[in-house]
Amino acid sequence: MAKAEDDGKEPMNEQAVANIYGAMRAEINQIYSKITELEMEVSEHSLVINAIKPLDSSRRCYRMIGGVLVERTIKEVLPAVQRNKEGIEEVITRLNEALEKKKKELTEFESKYKIRIKKTDGEMKDESGKMEGNAQGVLVGPPSGSE
């Protein structure tokens, strides 16, 4: 749906514009989710690398490959885990580039169709609460004179 405007066909009505806009925002959210998921995987790979790096390279270790637990040595596993981590980091870089491109497309779409996001009453109340102060979650005891 997001490609409708790219084909030279203008959306027919406000509903079509809203649908395209919603699809574009959903796509951006999917990219954000995937980046977050992959960053967690990089973190897990780093933990594994840091745990096995100081160990003897001839020591046995186990690695999950395609759902099968395989016995290897640290010498064999460590380079593979490092390559996997680097590959995931490369994918994250590409996803970040795609995300920036999509955000730019979304901004252009918003300006072309003069899209403004209306805040709901709940969001406005939240903002007014933030303006009052950051005293949320603070417990205050009774005045010292009332003991």
UniProtKB/TrEMBL annotation:
Biased composition regions of type Basic and acidic residues, renumbered to the chain: 121-130
Coiled-coil annotated residue ranges, if any: 85-112
Region (Disordered): 121-147
Protein origin, superkingdom: Eukaryota
Keywords associated with the record: Chaperone, Coiled coil
Name by which UniProt lists this protein: Probable prefoldin subunit 2
Family the entry assigns: Belongs to the prefoldin subunit beta family.
UniProt GO MF annotations: unfolded protein binding
Gene Ontology cellular component list: prefoldin complex
Pfam families found in the cross-reference section: Prefoldin_2
Coiled coil as UniProt keyword: yes
One of the protein's GO biological processes: protein folding
